[in-house]
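Example complex used in Figure S2.
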Amino acid sequence: MAPKRVDRSARREEILSAAVRVFARQGFAATRIEDVAAEAGIAKGSVYLSFSSRDDLLAAAFARLADRSAGVLGHTTAEGVPAVERLTRLVRSAVAMLADEPELTRVMVDLWAAGRHRGDAAPLDMATVYREYRGAVAGLLREAAGEGDLRPGIGEPEATVVVGAIEGCLVQWLMDPAVPLAGLADTVVGVCLSGLRSDGAASPPCPLPAAPVPVTDTGNGPGAGRTQGPSGA
Amino acid sequence: MAPKRVDRSARREEILSAAVRVFARQGFAATRIEDVAAEAGIAKGSVYLSFSSRDDLLAAAFARLADRSAGVLGHTTAEGVPAVERLTRLVRSAVAMLADEPELTRVMVDLWAAGRHRGDAAPLDMATVYREYRGAVAGLLREAAGEGDLRPGIGEPEATVVVGAIEGCLVQWLMDPAVPLAGLADTVVGVCLSGLRSDGAASPPCPLPAAPVPVTDTGNGPGAGRTQGPSGA
Amino acid sequence: MAPKRVDRSARREEILSAAVRVFARQGFAATRIEDVAAEAGIAKGSVYLSFSSRDDLLAAAFARLADRSAGVLGHTTAEGVPAVERLTRLVRSAVAMLADEPELTRVMVDLWAAGRHRGDAAPLDMATVYREYRGAVAGLLREAAGEGDLRPGIGEPEATVVVGAIEGCLVQWLMDPAVPLAGLADTVVGVCLSGLRSDGAASPPCPLPAAPVPVTDTGNGPGAGRTQGPSGA
Amino acid sequence: MAPKRVDRSARREEILSAAVRVFARQGFAATRIEDVAAEAGIAKGSVYLSFSSRDDLLAAAFARLADRSAGVLGHTTAEGVPAVERLTRLVRSAVAMLADEPELTRVMVDLWAAGRHRGDAAPLDMATVYREYRGAVAGLLREAAGEGDLRPGIGEPEATVVVGAIEGCLVQWLMDPAVPLAGLADTVVGVCLSGLRSDGAASPPCPLPAAPVPVTDTGNGPGAGRTQGPSGA
DNA sequence: AATGAATGAGTTTTCATTCAT
DNA sequence: CATGAATGAAAACTCATTCAT
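Predicted assembly (932 residues):
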C-alpha cells in the first residue's frame, strides 16, 4: 500500500529517529515496537525490516549517542588552540549537542539504566564511552597544565569531576526542565577552572594532614609561563 | 507455616531491601515480582501484603533514596561551622551515603529514568528532590560568600554545577566500577572551590576528624589506588 | 478463580491428554497453545505452568507415544510362550494400543513428520524408537526360527516388513476411517506368517539367480520339530 | 530483468520441485514461502505468479505424489503377465518410484499429516489415493487367486496389509536412513507371498530382466549392506 | 498471614499476501 | 512479468495481580 521505499538505510534512520523520540517521551521500558512504528508512520512489522529486534533498536540508539559523543570529542584535537580553550569548546559543544537533541539526553539516562544488566559485551558499553570521554578530558587538562594554564598534578580524577559536572547538569535539566541549560556550559567551565573562592584568595582554610585528596603541591605561585606547543611533556 | 511476622514495617523494609538489591542487579525494567520474592525468601503473593503493586515497590525505593538525601542535607544546618566546611561535609556525606548503599545508587539511575512518564500522581518526583538539593547547596554557597570564603554573585547555576559534579561522578562510577569513588568527594570539593587554574590554590578540603558519615572504603577493584604526582602528559 | 490444584503432575497429564486430543483433531502445526488450554478447560498461561514451551508439549506427546510403544514391546519377553505366539500378541497389542487411543495414532503421523527437521537429538528421536521396535521383532523372529516355527535366515529386513505392515495399516486406517482396523492385526499376522500363496503350495514360481533378497536356503522341508523352551540358542 | 519465462507450467514445475526439496528438508510446517523462493532462485512475490497460496503449493505436491502413484498403478494392467508377477512389479516400482524421488517421499509423511483437517475442499484427498491403491492391489490379489497362485478368499484386508507393508517400510527408511531400502521391495513380496513359516517356501520374487522401473540404488549410508546368513539367536 | 496456582491482558516476533514500481 | 517493501493478522510467551486454600 505504501509506496515502495528506495533507500534502505534512510528508512532505518527514519525509524531510529522515531524510536529515539518515543524513547525520550516514554522511556525504553515503556516503549513498544508498535509505538515506534506509529511514530514513524509505518506498520509494526515494517520495523523488523530494518531492525532485527527490539534490542537491536536499543543498540542502535546507543550507537547514535556514541556517535554524537565522538563528534564532541573532535574538539580536543583542534590545532593551534590552547588546551583550555579547547576544553571550553568541548564542554560547550557537549551541552549544545544534547540541548540540540533533547531526546538524546533523555535516552542517555535510559542507556545508563540499561547499560548495566548485560555483562555480555558490545551493544551497550557505556563504560567504554565514558572511559574515552574522561581520557580525552584528562588529556586536555594535562595539556593545559603543560601549557601553564592549569596547575600540575591534574589527572583522571579531575577529568571525572569535569565530565561529571557536565552530565550531572544535564540530568538535572532532564529531571526538571526549569533548570536553565543555556549558560550552564559556561558555568561549568567557570566553576571548574576558577573555582568558587573569593577572587584571587588562594587561602586554604586549613592544612591537609592526611586528607585522601591527591594533591601534590599547594599554592604553586601564579602564572608559570604559557607554553603553547603541542602537549609538551 | 512460617512463624507469624513480628512487625509489618520490618517485613516491608526487608522486602524493599531485597527489591533494591534485585533492581540494582537487573534493573527495574527486568525485575519481576517473583525475583524480589525469591531474593526476600518469601512467596510471590506475599509481596502484595506489603506493597500494593510493582510500581509501589519502585516508589518505595524512591522514598528510601529521598530519605537518604534528606539525611545528607542535614549537614547544611550545623551550627557554628563555616558554610564552606558544611558544604564539604555535605559533598562527602552525599558520596559516602551512596557508597554505603551501592545498590541504592544503582537504583537511582533507574529512578531517573522512571521519574519521567508518570505525570498523574507524583510518586517519583525527582524534580523536587533535586530542586531541594540545589536549593540547599545554593544556600550554603551564598552563606559562604557572605562569610567571605567564596566570591559574591554565586547562586543556583553554581549549585547546579556542584550537585551535577557529585551525581555525574557517581554515574561514572556506576557505569565503570574502575572509577575510584573514594577520594572523588574531595576532588569534587577541591575542583569546585579552587578550580583548576594554576593561579588557584589547590586547596584540599579541611580534614574532618569526626566526620558525621563514615566514609567506608568502596574498594572499587583495580585502579582504586590512584597515581598521585603529575601524571606527565 | 479456579480452585487451587493439588497435584502438579496430574495437571500435567491432564494438559498432555488434552493436547493429544487436539493434536489428533487438528494436527501439530495447526494447534495453538490456546486450543490446548481450551480443551483442558484452563487459561492459556496455565499451560506454561506445566510445560515450558510448545515444543516441550510436542516432546511430551512423543514421550507418551514412546512409553506406549515400550509397553507393547513387553510382550516379547513372556516366559514359556512360543516366540510365534509372542509375536502374534505383539502385533495384536500394537494395533489394539493405537485403536484404544486413536488420538495417539494421529499424533504418531505428526511425529513422523516432525521427527525430521531437528537434527539436534533427544526429544523426537523416532529413529531410535523404530530401531528398537524392529530389533524386538527381529529377535522374536529369530527365536521363532530357532524354535523351528519360522524358516531360518530371517532377520532385520523381515522385521522391517512386519513392523511396516503394522504401521502401514494404521496409517491407512488413519487416512480413511472406513478401513476396518479390527481384524487387521490378525490379517497382518496371517499374511506375514503364512503368506498369501495357495495353501501348502510351496512352489516358487521361479528360481533366484541373483536376486538381492537375502534368503539362504530354499524349501527346507516342513515341520522341523517344535522346540518350546526359552528362546534356545 | 531476467529473460522472460518461456513456459508457465515449466516455471510452475521448477517452483514445485524447489518447494518439495524444502518441504523434505524442513517439513511443510516450517517452510516459508521465502524459503521456497530462495530455493527456486526467484523472488518471494514471484511464487504467487504460479501458485495462489502456500496451501496451493502443498496441494500441488500432493498432486505430484498422486500422479506418481497413478504411474505405479499402471503395472496392474500389463497384458499376458501373471497377476503375481504384476504384483511384484507393482511393489518394486512403488518402492523404486519413491526411492527415485526421496524428497517427495519425505513430503508424503507431511501430506499424511496434512491430509486431515481440511474437510472443506478436498485438495488433499489421501483417502481416495489409498483407496485406489488398495483396490488395485486387491484386484491383483484376486486375479492371482483366480490364477491359482494365491489362496482363495483373499481381498481388501490382505491388500491393506500389502500396501501397508510398503508404506510402512518407507516410513521406517525415512525415520532412519540406515534402514536399507534397496531390497526391501523384494522382502515385502517374499514375506507377503510366502510368509515366514518354515513350511512356506521362502520364494524370492521372479527376477525381472527388464524391470519397467529403474530400481536405482538408494545408497543409504552404512548398514545398507545387510548381513545375510542366520544371525543366530 | 502466607502461599503459589490460575488468569488473561499485553508484547514481541513471524510470515503469508499484496501491490506499487 | 518480476520484485521485495509494506502490511497486519496471528501466535508464542510473560508476568502482574488475584484469591482459594
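Residues 1-4, 32-34, 44-45, 48, 53-54 of chain C lie near DNA strand F (CB under 10 Å from a C1'). Chain C is about 60% helix and 0% strand.
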